[in-house]
Specification:
This protein has about 800 residues and is mainly alpha-helical. The chain has 5 domains: about 1-160 and about 180-190, no CATH class; about 195-365, no CATH class; about 385-570, no CATH class; about 610-750, no CATH class; about 760-789, no CATH class. The chain contains 30 helices and 5 strands. The strands form 2 sheets. It has a 3-stranded antiparallel sheet with strand order 1-4-5, with no helix packed on it. The chain has a two-stranded antiparallel sheet with strand order 2-3. A hairpin with a 2-residue loop joins strand 2 and strand 3 (about 140-145). The radius of gyration is 44 Å and the shape is extended. The model is unreliable at about 1-60, about 80-105, about 150-190 and about 785-789 (pLDDT under 50). This is NOC3-like protein.
Length: about 800
C-alpha cells in the first residue's frame, strides 16, 4: 500500500498544472500588431504507471480509493459508452486521501463492473448496407457484416489531456497576485466558477474595445502610406473570419465598413491590367508598383468574395429552410450596402462586372431595405455614368434575370429603368453609320492602295488611341452613342415582352410608365402595334386604375411626337381618360395625380389644335370638380391646368357665364363622352367653394380663375413664382409629406360668438299674435308654479 500511495502522489503532483491569463491580455507588441496570448499547458497523465498499479492490485484496492459518487458516475458512463464525460472530472486534493476498506458487497460490485467493462471492449458485428444491384430478376439488395471500429487511442488520450487541468491557486496559495486573473481551460473561462452578468458584459465590452482599436490602427496605417503598408490589408481580411461568439457580429460589421472606406480611398478610377514580368528585367520602382497593384487586386477580390458569402444569406433558393439569426441578417445587409457603395464610387475599376452580376438579383429580394439599397445604387450609376458602359452591363444583367424568371419579379426591378438618361436615340443610326463606313472604306481602297506594313501600323495606332482614352476615363461620342443604342434596344425588348406575356399588374404598371417616358425613342414602325396592344389592355377587367392611366399617357405621348403623322383617331382614349379622372381622391390614390397631370399635358395642352372646343370644355369642368376631392397640392395642380386652358383657348370663358337660359341642352356629368356632356351649358360653381379653401394658394388660384385668369384685375393677381410653375412642379412644391404647409398657415383668430337678437320679425301678423299669446300663457303658468313652490 505504501508503494501505491507513492505512485499516486507522484502522478498527482506531476499532473497538476494550471494557467493564469489576465483579462487585459490583448495588448499589441510594437508595430507587429500581434496579440500576446498564453496557451494553457496540458500535462499528460502517466497512464502506464496507473495501469501497472492496477495490474499489480487486480482492481481490489483501487475501489477502496474511489468514492461512492465517483463509482456511480463510472457505472453510468460505462453503461452508456460515453467516456467523453470524463472531461468533467476535476482533481481535488481533499479527495486524494486513502479510504478504509469497504464491505464485501462493494468488492462484488467492482468485480461486476470490471466484467461489464471487458464485455464492452469485445468487437461487435455491424451490418453495413451496400448499393443494390439491378439484374434480370429485379433489384437485389446487398449488405455486409464488419467489426465496429472504435475511436483511436490517440484521440482518447487527447480528450484525457484536456480534462486534466487544475487551478494553480490551490498549490501556490498566492491570493494577492490573482486579482484581475481568470483561470482558462480549452473553452475559455473555467465553467465551474460562476460568472456574473456584469462581469460577462464588461469582458465583452473590453474585447470589443480592443477589436475596435486593432481595426482602427490597421486602417489608419494603410491610409497613411498605402504603397508601403498594403500588406496590412491581409490582416484586416482575417478579422472578417473572426468567430468570437460574443462580438463576431459587431466585429464583422466594423471590419466590412473599415475595408470599404480603405478601398474607396486607395482604388484608382481606371481598370488595372497586370502583365507577367517574371521573365523580364524591370526597374525597382516598376517592380514595387507591380507588387502593389497585384496585392491590391488580390485583396480586393478576397474582400468581394467575403461580401458575396455574407450576402447570399438573404438570397435563398427554393427548398432552403435554414434559419439565420438577426445578427447574421444585419451583417448581410451591411455587405449589400458595401458592395453597392463600391459600384457607385468605382464603376470603372476591376470586377465591376462581377459586382453587377451579384447585386442585380437583390432587386427582387423579399427584404424591402435590401431592394431599396440596390435600386438606389443602380439609379445613381445610371445618372453618373458618362461612358454608359456600366449602365449597359446592368441592363444586360437585368434582362437575363427577367428571362430566367419569366418576368414574375418585383416592380422595383423595372422602376429602376426610369432613371435612365435616354434622350434622342435613333435605333437605325448605327446601321446607317455602318453602311456609310463600308462605302467610304471601299472608295479609299480603290483610290489608296496601302501596304501591309502601313495597314498594320494604322491598326496599332487605333489600339493605342483607344487605350489612351481608357486611361483618361473618356470615350468617343461614337462609342457612347453605340452603348445608348444597345441600352435602348434592351429596354424596349423588356417592355414589349412584358406587354405580350405578363399578367402581373404591378410589373405591367411599371412597364407602361417606362413606355410613356421613353416613347419618343421608339421606332415609328412599332407605333401602330403598341397603340393596338394598349387599346386591348384598356378593355381588360383585371387592369387597375393606375395602369389605365399609364396606358392613356403612353398613347398620347406616342401620338404627340413622331406619331403625329399616323392617321389614327384617339377618341376612345379620351373617353377612357374622362371616365377615370374622378377615381383619384385624397386617399391612397392621390399619388396618381402625377400621371394625371402628365396625361392632361400630353392629351389636351400639347394637342389643343387637334381637339374640339367642347371636348376641352368638358375636361376643364371635370378637372375643376376633381380639385374639390384632392389634397391642397393636387388642387393647386388641377387649378393650374384650368388656368392654362383659359389662357390658351378663349372658348372656355363660357364656363364663367352664370346665365343658363342660352344653350343647346343641359349638363350631364354622368355621360361618358366629354364632347356630348353639355359642359358649355353650366358654370364653374366649384370655384366658389375653392375660394374659401383652407390653403391660401388654392384660394388665390380660384379667385384668379373666377376673374377670367386675368391678373390685371384687383384682388385677382397671382404671384409670379407660382404662375410660371407647371402642374408637376406645383404638385411637388406644395407636397405635405413632411407634415408642413408651404407657406405656413396662420392660426385662426379666436372670435367671440355674437349674442342672439331679441327681436323677431314675422311675415304673417296672425302667426305673430298666436306666438305671443302662447308665450304669455306659458309665462303665467311658470309664475304660478313658482309661487306654489
Amino acid at each position: 500500500m505504501g508503494s501505491k500511495k507513492a505512485v499516486k502522489n507522484s502522478s498527482s503532483s506531476n499532473n497538476k498544472k494550471s494557467v493564469k491569463v489576465k483579462a487585459s491580455n490583448k495588448k499589441f507588441k510594437g508595430g507587429k500588431n500581434k496579440r500576446r496570448e498564453t496557451v494553457p499547458k496540458l500535462i499528460k497523465p502517466k497512464i502506464k504507471d496507473v495501469e501497472e498499479s492496477e495490474e499489480s492490485d487486480y482492481g481490489e484496492d483501487m475501489l477502496d480509493m474511489v468514492e461512492e459518487e465517483d463509482l456511480a458516475f463510472l457505472k453510468t458512463a460505462i453503461a452508456n459508452k460515453s467516456y467523453s464525460l470524463l472531461k468533467n472530472v476535476k482533481f481535488d486534493k481533499s479527495k486524494g486521501q486513502k479510504r478504509k476498506l469497504q464491505d464485501e458487497e462493494e468488492d462484488d460490485d467492482g468485480d461486476d463492473l470490471e466484467n461489464d467493462y471487458e464485455s464492452q471492449l469485445k468487437p461487435t458485428k455491424v451490418v453495413k448496407n451496400l448499393l443494390p444491384i439491378k439484374t434480370n430478376k429485379g433489384i437485389v439488395k446487398r449488405s455486409v457484416e464488419q467489426d465496429e471500429v472504435d475511436e483511436p487511442e490517440e484521440e482518447e488520450e487527447e480528450q484525457m489531456e484536456e480534462s486534466y487541468i487544475d487551478d494553480e491557486n490551490e498549490d501556490t496559495g498566492d491570493d494577492d497576485d490573482d486579482e484581475g486573473m481568470y483561470v482558462f481551460n480549452e473553452d475559455g473561462i473555467d465553467k465551474s466558477v460562476p460568472v456574473s452578468a456584469a462581469q460577462m458584459l464588461s469582458n465583452r465590452n473590453e474585447t470589443l474595445r480592443q477589436k475596435k482599436i486593432y481595426i482602427g490602427n490597421l486602417s489608419s496605417i494603410i491610409l497613411e502610406n498605402p504603397e508601403e503598408n498594403i500588406l496590412n490589408l491581409r490582416l484586416l481580411m482575417k478579422i472578417l473570419d473572426d468567430d468570437t461568439p460574443e462580438v463576431y457580429v459587431t466585429v464583422r460589421k466594423l471590419a466590412i465598413v473599415a475595408l470599404l472606406e480603405v478601398f474607396k480611398d486607395i482604388l484608382p478610377n481606371y481598370n488595372l491590367k497586370l502583365q507577367d514580368i517574371t521573365e523580364t528585367k524591370v526597374k525597382k520602382d516598376t517592380l514595387k508598383q507591380h507588387k502593389f497593384e497585384e496585392t491590391l487586386l488580390s485583396s480586393y477580390k478576397k474582400y468581394l468574395q467575403h461580401l458575396e458569402k455574407f450576402m447570399y444569406i438573404l438570397h435563398r433558393k427554393r427548398g432552403d429552410a435554414r434559419v439565420f439569426s438577426e445578427g447574421e441578417i444585419n451583417v448581410a445587409e451591411v455587405a449589400v450596402h458595401a458592395m453597392c457603395d463600391l459600384l457607385v464610387s468605382h464603376p470603372y475599376f476591376n470586377f465591376a462586372q462581377n459586382i453587377v452580376q451579384t447585386i442585380v438579383p437583390f432587386l427582387n429580394n423579399p427584404n424591402k431595405n435590401v431592394r431599396q439599397l440596390v435600386a438606389a445604387a443602380c439609379k445613381t450609376v445610371f445618372k453618373e455614368d458618362k461612358r454608359e458602359e456600366i449602365t449597359l452591363k446592368v441592363m444586360r444583367a437585368v434582362n437575363q434575370y427577367l428571362r430566367n424568371h419569366a418576368h414574375n419579379v418585383n416592380a422595383d426591378m423595372l422602376e429602376v429603368f426610369l432613371a435612365l438618361r435616354i434622350k434622342d436615340v435613333n435605333l437605325d443610326q448605327e446601321k446607317e453609320h455602318d453602311i456609310k463606313e463600308k462605302k467610304l472604306n471601299s472608295k479609299k481602297g480603290n483610290i489608296l492602295r496601302l501596304s501591309k506594313r502601313e495597314r498594320k501600323k494604322g491598326k496599332m495606332l487605333k489600339e493605342l488611341e483607344k487605350e489612351m482614352l481608357e486611361t483618361k476615363a473618356e470615350e468617343s461620342k461614337q462609342m457612347k452613342h453605340h452603348n445608348l443604342t444597345e441600352i435602348t434596344k434592351i429596354l424596349f425588348g423588356i417592355y414589349f415582352r412584358i406587354l405580350k406575356s405578363s399578367n402581373n399588374t404591378k410589373v405591367l404598371g411599371a412597364c407602361l410608365e417606362g413606355l410613356a417616358k421613353f416613347a419618343h425613342c421608339i421606332n415609328l414602325e412599332f407605333y401602330v402595334d403598341i397603340v393596338n396592344v394598349l387599346d386591348k389592355l384598356l378593355k381588360e377587367d383585371w387592369l387597375g386604375y393606375r395602369e389605365n392611366l399609364n396606358c392613356v399617357r403612353t398613347v398620347f405621348s406616342i401620338l404627340g411626337g413622331q406619331g403625329e403623322i399616323l392617321n389614327m383617331d384617339p377618341t376612345r382614349f379620351y373617353k377612357y381618360f374622362y371616365q377615370d379622372l374622378l377615381c383619384t381622391t385624397a386617399g391612397r390614390t392621390h399619388n396618381n395625380m402625377e400621371i394625371v397631370f402628365s396625361a392632361l399635358a400630353e392629351a389636351l395642352l400639347n394637342r389643343r389644335k387637334k381637339i374640339t372646343n367642347k371636348r376641352l370644355i368638358g375636361f376643364v369642368k371635370r378637372v375643376t370638380t376633381l380639385a374639390l376631392q384632392l389634397l391642397h397640392n393636387g388642387s393647386i395642380g388641377a387649378l393650374s391646368f384650368v388656368k392654362t386652358a383659359f389662357q390658351l383657348n378663349s372658348a372656355t370663358d363660357i364656363l364663367l357665364d352664370l346665365d343658363n337660359s342660352v344653350g343647346d341642352g343641359k349638363f350631364d356629368p354622368h355621360l361618358e363622352e366629354p364632347e356630348y356632356s353639355g359642359a358649355a351649358n353650366t358654370a364653374l360653381y366649384e370655384l366658389t367653394l375653392l375660394a374659401k379653401h383652407y390653403h391660401p394658394i388654392v384660394a388665390k388660384y380660384a379667385v384668379h380663375i373666377a376673374n377670367g385668369a386675368n391678373s390685371a384685375k384687383e384682388g385677382a393677381t397671382l404671384p409670379m413664382e407660382y404662375a410660371k410653375c407647371t402642374m408637376e412642379e406645383l404638385f411637388e412644391k406644395f407636397d405635405m409629406s413632411e407634415m408642413a404647409f408651404n407657406p405656413p398657415i396662420r392660426v385662426p383668430k379666436q372670435v367671440q360668438a355674437k349674442a342672439r337678437p331679441e327681436r323677431h320679425e314675422f311675415a304673417n301678423e296672425d302667426f305673430k299674435r298666436m306666438c305671443y299669446k302662447k308665450l304669455k300663457y306659458e309665462k303665467s303658468n311658470e309664475a304660478f308654479f313658482i309661487g306654489i313652490k
